[in-house]
Design brief:
membrane, alpha+beta, five-stranded antiparallel β-sheet, MetI-like fold, elongated, transmembrane helix, 59% helix, 2 domains, cell membrane
Length: 364
Amino acid sequence: MSHKSSSLKQLALQKFKKNFWGVFSFYFIVLVGLVSVFAYIFTPDDSQYANQMHLSIHSKKPGFKIEILTIPSQLENHQSWLSKVFFGKKNTDTEIPISKYSIKEGLLMYKEYAADGLEGVEKTIPLSLFPNGKAGNYIKEKTFLFGTDKYGRDLLSRVLVGARISFFIGFVAVFISLIIGIFMGSVAGYFGGKIDALIMWIINVTWSIPTLLLVIAITLALGKGFWQVFIAVGLTMWVEVARVVRGQIISAKEMQYVTAARALGFNDFRIIIRHILPNIMAPVIVISAANFAGAILIESGLSFLGIGAQPPMSSWGAMIKDHYNYIILGKPYLAIIPGLCIMSLVMAFMLIGNALRDALDVKN
């Protein structure tokens, strides 16, 4: 039996490898996962939430270059290396976009950058503010590959950091939906009768409520925030899993291997966990891939409505909300770039779901 199971797994893996779009989507999802985990290593702006604002250079086009003067802070910053890698750097320095500067008689004279042809303010600071009096080391040209948002933040950094929420909400939401859905579906399908009728009533009531409306109600009950959205989305996605599991178990519990397990005296819990569930996981895996995509879209919608991830936390949905009006102002990329990110990640999960469906289909 184990040899047959192993051969079926190998056959499914071979079929999956032949699906170009499935394999491509898999590697794309892995890439997005690595970027989301180690976002602050790749971002040009490694401050917490990539939230370094420069209002004088707001909504600049991709490829915009400017010299940035960094004035060191006198405050001590005690932060571990791991904290910087996973949560960003607590930036206490002051960054100022400048158009020109000069050093004379122990003073740094610079002119602040001003947009729209305006003249920037000229200021003077002593070189003693810089370590060893070397101000030149603290003036660097910075390129904004994706341009800047309406607050003058690096759009590329915000996009990379925003991938973290969109990616991990899929895992958390699907994990919660699998735990609840598999439990409810297993109990309903295996025991039947009044238990099945009660659980199906709960499923139908939950199913009848619009998903976005239910998520909004749960989010408002739990409060606005990062984890509240994850939990709210997960609590609305278990219904589909429960229906699939229930239907599969109703069919599987009449199979001979289940009858043999009962004859050997195994209890119901062991029969469900050890014998039935491993044989019905193929459709559950496929629906989980679809739920990943659904969770990303729901979170984006919530962030667009302002009840998802809260500022200054970066989220693709919130980035679209902040900049959708720029579409008619000649700077559509501010909303299109995060929109394309959402679309590509959702498409990848849908394609990998289709590939898994074909690979796990024993009829083909």
